[in-house]
Amino acid sequence: MSQNSHNMNVFDRLAKKLQRDRTAKNEDYHQFNYIKDEVGNRLSDRVYDINRKFKKGLDLGCGYGHVSRHLTKDAVEELVMCDHSALVLEKASIPEDTTINCRKIEVDEEALPFEPESFDLVMSSLSLHWVNQLPSTFSQIMKCLRPDGVFIGALFGGETLYELRGSLQLGETEREGGFAAHISPFAAIRDIGGLLNSAGFTMLTIDTDEISVGYPSMFELMEDLKGMGENNASWIRKLHLHRDTMFAASAIYKELYGNEDGSIPATFQIIYMIGWKPDPSQPKPLERGTGEISIKDLYRLDEVVKNATENMVKQTAKEITHNLEDDDGKKM
Predict the structure, then answer these.
(1) Count of structural domains within the chain
(2) Residue 11 CB contacts under 8 Å (≥ 6 apart), including other chains
(3) Under 8 Å CB-to-CB from 118, ≥6 apart: which residues?
(4) What is the C-alpha separation between 268 and 218, in angstroms, rounded?
(5) Given CB 3.0 to 4.6 Å as the disulfide criterion, which of 90, 145, 208, 276 pairs with 149?
């Protein structure tokens, strides 16, 4: 293992790069991009939800351009697309809006080469789950953002492929008396907020979504994961599975999770995150004690709102009556 042990590196980054290089060499590589294309489309919607035109944006771990292809000049004027795999980057689709000034750079997501305060917008779709030191990458993203810049990202969550993980564990235990890690670990949604906060991001928005895809069997699922470049790249991965173990796991998968039509479902949990670099122009929370409703009155919130509305109506009616009386006095 060439990595420093004190860094607690989980993933073999070179192996992951080689796996993704292989996907780019396949003539039908685009057929395996359905998950990443869908998430990229949803992530681009979040860019447009922000009512702002960004001067310079970064697509970090752009893959085959899953997000960038949807961007227009209304969203970003200049775009930098980067990926760890030069072969993938070469085939990445640039924005359909050719008026965007776009360039590609080969970049390792663990070591960003950009100058401080270089971008107004940083996007990353389904790339950062292969980063060993996610807190460090978040800090580097924060550093290269300009004040009031925004980071919009998506990564696979901890519930991703739970059916496959459980089936392989049960099948291997049954056939070999123990099991190894065949599915790479993913971040839990409860951890993402803390990591973003620690990196200095503010005004966080984090939500999760699930995409379920049906496959004829476990073998087609594993073949598609390989085609996506999402096969296991952890240091402790087991390089080979016995044939008996594979068939046992496939049978268990279909028995425990199979659909009525004979297919099997595979769940992909997606964690979406938005974080802003602090700036004095951003809205600030009210100081403690300035609230007009006590938290102890929350159980009777409807009553409090009703009373406040009635008081407001009475006050408004009183002011209108007073103004009318003043107008009558002036006329006389």
Answers:
(1) 2
(2) 130, 131, 132, 184, 233, 234, 235
(3) 56, 58, 144, 146
(4) 15
(5) 145
Instruction: Tell me if residue 317 falls in helix, strand or coil.
Output: helix
pLDDT for 185-238, tens place per residue? 788 888 999 999 999 999 999 999 999 999 999 999 999 999 999 988 777 777
Query: Is the domain of 222 the same as that of 109?
Result: yes
Contact assessment for residue 151 and residue 275, using Cβ atoms and an 8 Å cutoff: yes
Half-sphere exposure of 11 (CA within 13 A, CB side): 25
pLDDT value of residue 4: 43
| pTM of the shown model | 0.80
| C-beta separation of 196 from 246 below 8 A | no
**Quick check: 196 and 138 in contact, CB under 8 A?**
yes
Statement to judge: residues 217 and 325 lie in one domain:
no
The neighbouring-strand residues paired with 194 are none
CB 270 within 8 A of CB 158: no
What is the residue type of 171? G
Q: Residues near 253 by Cβ (< 8 Å), separated by ≥ 6? A: 163, 164, 167, 217, 218, 264
In whole angstroms, give the CA distance from residue 223 to residue 235. Answer: 21
Domain that includes residue 302, residue range? 295-331
Q: Do residues 47 and 193 share a domain? A: yes
d(C-alpha 36, C-alpha 16), whole Å: 17
Do 268 and 309 belong to one domain?
no
The reply to whether 201 falls in a domain is: yes
**Separation of CA 21 from chain center:** 23
The answer to the question of residue 24 being in a domain is: yes
* The two structure tokens encoding residue 304: 């409090």
